[in-house]
Amino acid sequence: MIGRLACRIDVLRRAAACMGLGLVVLLVLFGVTLAMPVETWRTGQQFSGPLPVLAPSELPAAPGRIWVDADPACGEGARVDPDDCLAIWYLMGLGDVTIAGVSTVFGNAPLKATDTVTRELMTRLRPTHGLVPVYRGAEAPLPESGAGTDAERGLLAALAEDELTVVALGPLTNVAAALQARPDLHGNVQKIVAVMGRRPGHIFHPAEGAGGGTLFGHGPVFRDFNVVQDPDALRVVLNLDIPLVLIPYEVARDVEVDEEALGHIAASGTAGRWVAERARPWLTYWKTDIGRDGFYPFDLMAAMFVAEPTRFACAGVHVELRRDRTVFFPFSRMPALLIEPLASGHHGSHPGTLYCHGLQGDPQPLGLGGVVARTTGDPDMRRERALGR
Ligand SMILES: [Ca+2]
After folding, report:
1. Into which CATH architecture does domain 56-386 fall?
2. CB under 5 Å of ion ligand 1: residues
3. pLDDT tens per residue across span 269-312
């Protein structure tokens, strides 16, 4: 009996030792994986190949009247992007664009915060740029929330007056709720400019081996935030017969907002100073955890597209909302808005979609409402794009 018990204890000891050894091997393999160099295909460049570029004459003209739907949360935390605030500040500075209204949506922060931040920003912009009404929108994704909000009523009233372009900087909840309620007004939506979309296999990985303080320099990986926040709203928008312009991570990668750019923005006036101050924690996060001197200004790129569409390299694409099986767990399980070039013969949905994947022409400063952000000017990326023309 005692001999049998000793034998069992011995087996258990050996099993525990094997498990321990296996765990150590797994940890070593995990560490080696993280320490491996980061291939550039993770940003969607080499992996997917070049995309065609439409001629400037084929791009939509700059709109005269827009509606901005946004989830501004600048200053609401060190890891909350200030992009909506920068975009609204920039759009308000465009002399030749009328902003019919600004609606707020949950996203970067709960609605209570995004609505408050928007109103604070608009109050600071009002003395120099005039009054633009703000409409409170959805506090949760469809179908729980979205219908019957001030945002929905405001957008529909503006559409009933005249044509406009919708600039959607957050989840599409408000836009979907409003437009699905009134098909008769769809003809007055010139297009929807939305910050989202990616190529299959594309992971939003801003460190790209640049260093940073986490995971051997691999740094954080971002989600296609506006897609995953409300895929049902996106599905509604994709089923509308309204032209769609996608401003993806990929094009934001062409521009960095650094200390110098924030300094210019701060020097522009009261509102610029407020926005720049609230953007600094985000810049610090990019410096310390991502290892870059500046951050990619996602929503600001959509605002720049409104102002200067011909500066953008855009391709006509098919789009599909589905899982991306070319990337690894857990990203493959998230809903993804994936694009394929029109020429690929892929059967997607929603005709009339532009995917603006880069900036056109030589690297040069982009106007930022009278100030300047430098372009990153990645020569390999531009060469690939030139080959795609
Ligand atoms: Ca946003």
Report:
1. Alpha-Beta Complex (3.90)
2. 71, 84, 169-170, 299
3. 999 999 999 999 999 999 988 888 889 999 999 999 999 899 89
